[in-house]
Design brief:
single chain, 202 residues, alpha+beta, Trefoil (Acidic Fibroblast Growth Factor, subunit A), seven-stranded antiparallel beta sheet, binds 2-acetamido-2-deoxy-beta-D-glucopyranose, Fibroblast growth factor, IL1/FGF, Fibroblast_GF_fam, growth factor activity
Length: 202
């Protein structure tokens, strides 16, 4: 039996204490205090998709993590059934549950929406789109920032020698890659763990 635990407190999420706990405990991304039965059902529904994918991943091997990416602009990154990349403020939104797979050394990874089964891809012009078939446009480099956030830059494309990042603006929409900056808060995400058994230190 999987136990879902931990508190979810959006206003306090970015407080120092919470961030501290997050890294100490390796917390769970979705939490169940103050939730309606409908929300609970929706989350359990998401976890069915997770398990399915998870089994598949075991066959393929590789380091796979199940996460939500919560932006510093306060959105959960989603990939919908049309391959659109967007943000939601609903932490139970199944499209926000992501599979993050290490594809090579140096922090190169691929990010796939578990429900939609689309990979996030960035093309030469720096635009994000979902792709059903993985290719090297789907490779991102995970950058650990000093402030506990991570940033994800295209491993393939740069613009005038500058990295282009996955972003969610204040309005929860991706920016064009060429407008993105490592320092900009739209590029900053906290990967939030989703599963009890992933509480072990990676
Ligand atoms: C569970 O997922 C199925 C298929 O994605 C969907 O049709 C159904 O409405 C979901 N149920 C809940 C309670 O969210
Ligand atoms: C993206 O999210 C915003 C904010 O929630 C919403 O207004 C917009 O309709 C969404 N776009 C798509 C394509 O889902
Ligand atoms: C990049 O992706 C965007 C969004 O899907 C698309 O409109 C554009 O044509 C693509 N550009 C290239 C050069 O592939």
């Amino acid at each position: 039996m999987r136990k879902w635990r931990l508190t979810w407190n959006l206003p306090n999420l970015l407080s120092g204490l919470y961030v501290h706990m997050l890294f100490l405990l390796g917390s769970v991304c979705v939490t169940f205090s103050d939730r309606s039965p409908e929300q609970m059902a929706a989350i359990m529904n998401c976890s069915k998709h997770e398990r399915h994918t998870r089994n598949y991943d075991y066959m393929e091997g590789g380091d796979v993590r199940i996460r939500q990416l919560f932006s510093r602009t306060q959105w959960f990154l989603t990939i919908d059934d049309f391959g659109n990349i967007n943000g939601t403020q609903d932490p139970t939104n199944c499209y926000s549950i992501l599979e993050i797979r290490t594809v090579s050394e140096g922090g190169i990874l691929a990010i796939k929406g578990i429900k939609s089964q689309y990979y996030i891809s960035m093309n030469r012009t720096g635009q994000l789109q979902g792709k059903k078939i993985y290719n090297d446009n789907c490779n991102f480099k995970e950058v650990f920032l000093e402030n506990y956030f991570n940033a994800y830059s295209s491993a393939k494309w740069t613009r005038n020698g500058k990295e282009m990042f996955i972003t969610l603006s204040q309005k929860g929409r991706p920016l064009r890659g060429r407008k993105t900056r490592r320092e900009h808060i739209a590029s900053h995400f906290i990967p939030m763990k989703c599963r009890e058994e992933e509480r072990r230190v990676d």
